[in-house]
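INTERNAL AUDIT FORM
Audit reference: QA-55
Scope: verify that the stored structure record matches its stored sequence.
Auditor: D.O.
Record contents follow.
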Amino acid sequence: STTTTTIILPKSYTIAIVEGWNLLSTNFDIARNGCQDMKINVIYVYDRKTAELAKAAVSLNEIEKMFPKYASDEIQYLKKAPALMYVSGVQSCEVRITVPSASTYQKAMKAGRNLVQITPEMVGKKVSDITSKCNSYGVYELTPGKSASWSLLQATRTFGINDVGYSALVNVKDDCQLA
């Protein structure tokens, strides 16, 4: 006989913010519980048109001003794109994120470095499962902080519930689609 296990994922998650560089998914509703004193010094969002990080001032609400020639659909994407932000005013705190029911990760990759938000649909998948359709140089996570550093994720690493809300850097040789 076959046993089926159903995993029920929560609709909200708590993620840690530390002073310094943090790589987060912004495609969520964020409540600053415990982070009221947090100051965002600068935000870089992932611009899928150029496959590069683009400075977005200090507020996601200012994106329209930073990208005046972008169409409204691209502006909406940038407001929900993975973001690299430098935070001060707190040693560490936690924010609660609420995941929309239609949350999916960006599957279209351009040659080079891409930032990908880790969503609930990735939970239980290995790095190699997600990159199986791509010729990948590797998938990296950011160790946040003032002296942030990148770490290569092993192909056998499985994404878990505690990864949701963060983002990863996926480096690919050619344009491709994540699985």
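Auditor finding: record pair retrieved intact. The chain has a mean pLDDT of 78.
Action required: none
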